[in-house]
Design brief:
The structure holds two protein chains of two kinds. Chain A is globular. Chain A has three helices and eleven strands; from the N terminus they run βββαβββββαβββα. A six-stranded antiparallel β-sheet of chain A has the order 1-2-8-11-10-9. A five-stranded antiparallel β-sheet of chain A has the order 4-5-6-3-7. Chain B is an alpha+beta fold. Chain B has two helices and six strands, in the order βββαβββα. In chain B, the strands form two sheets. In chain B, strands 3-4-5-6 form a four-stranded antiparallel β-sheet. Classes of the chains: A alpha+beta, B alpha+beta. The interface between A and B is medium-sized, with 12 and 16 residues. Chain A: This is Sarcosine oxidase subunit gamma. Chain A: InterPro entries: GCVT_N, TrmE/GcvT-like. Chain A: It comes from Gemmobacter lutimaris. Chain B: Pfam families: SoxD. Chain B: InterPro entries: SoxD, SoxD_sf.
Chain lengths: 178, 92
């Protein structure tokens, strides 16, 4: 059987840097929605134990090495780069539905401040924090990691998100005279 | 105006969709008299003071919220999740 080559959502968009902030695509090894069923929390906690991550509190993510579990809603989280089998939750494969963008650099929070109505300064939104919020008018999952941010957007909006972010980076760099 | 979503924290009003009075949470039982349905669907108070209405956190966690606020002072007094209450009422 022929082996098909998967195309990443932003294939063809090469990393860009403006004013010391870099934007690139992050290709994830699978996204699974973990929606806890009523009364299923104990079973989910038990199934997560061998993975080494706990179910995240609202607005947080937990991780171990490459594997990450990020809060995305009430009784719901996305498992990134991992697999889970559990009766206590409705598990759905979301891998092809989302694109992941990575923004790095000292002024990354200033770039996002132009697009997110959130306080993203390190004191208010340190690594390990996550938010469901709109990037411009797009639904997104925003995560603060060491050295930058990672943003999940619907795959269909990947290029719009990329363009919006790059514009914000350019505007900020122009202001700084960089 | 800002609403403090119990899950997402303090967010701008524009992230939310306004639905209407929390009367919508008290749907009459099957076979209720016409007057009860009339009240449920059409008759609304317009208080100068405390009121409670439903908002949807559209740009955030996607939860329905019951917001208690004062229409005179514009103070937002409480924001509660609707889902746990609805579940308790038997829609399991």
């Amino acid at each position: 059987m022929p082996r098909l080559i998967a195309k990443s959502p932003l294939a063809g968009s090469w990393p860009v840097t403006h004013g010391g902030v870099s934007l690139s695509e992050l290709v994830l090894e699978g996204i699974t929605s973990v929606a806890v069923l009523p009364g299923g929390q104990n079973a989910v906690d038990k199934a997560l134990k061998p993975l080494g991550v706990a179910f995240p509190a609202p607005g947080r993510f937990t991780e171990k090495a490459e594997l990450r579990l990020v809060w995305t809603g009430r009784d719901q989280a996305f498992l990134l780069n991992g697999a889970l089998a559990c009766e206590g939750a409705a598990l759905t494969d979301q891998s092809d539905g989302w694109a992941c963008l990575r923004l790095e650099g000292a002024a990354a929070a200033d770039v996002l401040a132009r697009l997110y109505p959130l306080d993203l300064r390190a004191a208010a939104f340190p690594p390990g924090h996550a938010a469901r919020a709109a990037l411009g008018h797009m639904s997104s999952v925003l995560m603060r990691v060491e050295g930058g941010f990672e943003i999940l957007v619907f795959r269909s909006m990947a290029r719009s998100a990329w363009t919006e972010l790059e514009h914000a980076m350019q505007h900020l760099a122009a202001r700084a005279g960089a | 105006m800002r609403l403090t979503c119990p899950l997402c924290g303090e967010r701008d009003r524009r992230e939310f969709y306004y639905y209407g009075s929390d009367d919508y949470l008290r749907r009459p039982a099957e076979g209720a008299p016409a007057a009860a349905w009339d009240d449920y669907l059409h008759n609304r108070d317009n208080p100068a003071g405390e009121t409670r209405d439903l908002w949807y956190h559209e740009a955030g966690c996607g939860q329905w919220l019951a917001v208690t606020r004062n229409t005179v002072t514009h103070a937002v007094l409480a924001v509660d999740l609707v889902a746990p209450v609805a579940q308790k009422r038997g829609r399991k």
